[in-house]
Specification:
alpha+beta, 2 domains, four-stranded antiparallel sheet, single chain
Length: 224
């Protein structure tokens, strides 16, 4: 079956529309998760509005208690006294989201971080983070300590693995079209095509359409 130039143009436009529509089906938040070390004789002191996490330890810094500040998972400073930061640790949640059986939870500015065991909705046991419109599975384990700032950065101590973690929310959401599987083993969410990439594809398709129409017109003129 041959398509005339007008029909070919319409088909390509339809494909572009479908691509843009599919990308908007599911917009999920993505996170970068950092391991802050083991929690033996250590614990989380707090998280600030920038996502920096302060860990306390029972020794070091020349005193009985040491406070170490982590920026994007890297220890940047330590002190024998708690650093003066803009702490933004959230508050206790009024209620657990429907379908979750949370043993620990913390809320802040519409965000919620929690650990859930034996949920009635059948979701796996582990740590979750998100908003009322969608809560993402971060990984298996527990959240014995929970800290959350107002932009959705979440720090927790995993008592099962005896490790501490922080999930830093990426600046912009990643498109998760056609991928509804939960993130496993603390892997950051995979990045899928952004609108700019789709626009580039659409521009290329339009250029191909113009070239095809010119060639068809040229052959028709030669035939006449």
């Amino acid at each position: 079956m041959k398509l005339s130039p007008p029909r070919l143009s319409s088909a390509i436009v339809a494909i572009v529309v479908i691509l843009f529509g599919a990308a908007r089906l599911a917009v999920a938040d993505s996170y970068t998760i950092y391991d802050l070390g083991d929690d033996n004789a250590h614990g989380i002191y707090g998280i600030d509005s920038a996502g920096d996490v302060v860990i306390w330890g029972s020794n070091g810094c020349g005193s009985s208690t040491c406070y170490v500040t982590y920026v994007n998972g890297v220890a940047t400073s330590d002190s024998s006294t708690p650093p003066i930061l803009s702490y933004d640790d959230g508050t206790s949640c009024g209620s657990t989201p429907a379908g979750f059986n949370a043993s620990k939870s913390v809320c802040n500015n519409g965000w919620i971080g929690l650990d859930s065991l034996y949920s009635p909705n059948g979701d796996p046991n582990g740590v979750y983070l998100g908003t009322g419109s969608g809560i993402d599975f971060l990984g298996r384990g527990s959240a014995d300590q929970v800290f959350l700032n107002s932009v959705g950065d979440f720090a927790w101590a995993d008592g099962q693995d005896e490790e501490m973690y922080v999930a830093i929310r990426d600046d912009s959401p990643a498109f998760a079209a056609f991928d509804f599987s939960p993130k496993q083993d603390f892997d950051p969410a995979a990045t899928t095509p952004e609108p700019a990439s789709l626009l580039l594809v659409a521009t290329g398709l339009v250029a191909v359409t113009v070239a095809v129409r010119r060639r068809v017109t040229r052959f028709r003129d030669l035939a006449e």
